[in-house]
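Researcher: I'm preparing a figure for a lab meeting and need a structural model of a single chain. I don't have an experimental structure, so a prediction will have to do for now. The sequence is pasted below. Please return the structure as tokens so I can convert it later.
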Amino acid sequence: MSGLPHDGAGYDVQPLENGTGGWLAHRGQKELPGSGPGHDWVSEVFADAEDKHGTNLQEAANFEAPSAQMKHPPRILVLYGSLRPSSFSRKLAYECARLLEVLGADVRTFSPHGLPVRDPALEEHPKVQELRALSMWSEGHVWVSPEMHGCVTAAFKNQIDWLPLNTGSVRPTQGRTCVVLQVNGGSQSFNVVNELRRLARWMRMPCCTNQSSVPKAWQEFDEEGRMKESDFRDRVVDVMEEYFKFTLIMREHADFLNSRFSERKEVALKGRLLTQAEKEAAKKA
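Model: Understood. Here is the structure written out token by token.
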């Protein structure tokens, strides 16, 4: 796809001149998975060398789905829903990315900066091409959005709108796992995670049963953007641990689960899956 950086260029903490790349922006040190600024609580929880937490995440990191054929690290795309410099959804998304990295996932975070508002005339925009290519690369998504007027933000929904359900026989999201989290400026609610689950279902993505909603997010992060120790942080660890295992299991069977009678029939008759535009044109013919 035009405008998409090569893996070597994309895997960096800073974006390229055209705004793409910077998929490791969550890292404090480019070469150190799971790293970040300030207090490195993620490594502490993972190793738990002093037995402070009573357990560690090594068992989850060592988990293999029974009879697993896929041995490569799970490929996870992280999306967040705010453009603010002090974005709490980005801070939470970065913590999720760090946790998944220490568990063993190959993680890329996508920055919504520069992504145009959905417009069919802008299909070739570098940020659009990047987002779609990242989704095709991925085996799972982490979705983190603030709550705005009781719903997801426009910045987050715009990213989903750029991921069509189908483009010919290409399914940018179908069969990929999803996990949903939200941050709130005020008291806790679950409006966003409920809406994100509905979006995931519509995009044909199996959604992890666990989820996280962080109220008064401005109280839950320190000046370095790291989550303070709390029950909310423990819940985020729970969610990422479960999601990592969920993805390892589900990716083994994604192709089988997504094999549908109606689509096999369409391929047999037409030679491929048709786009929605082609289907609508056929109805008018």
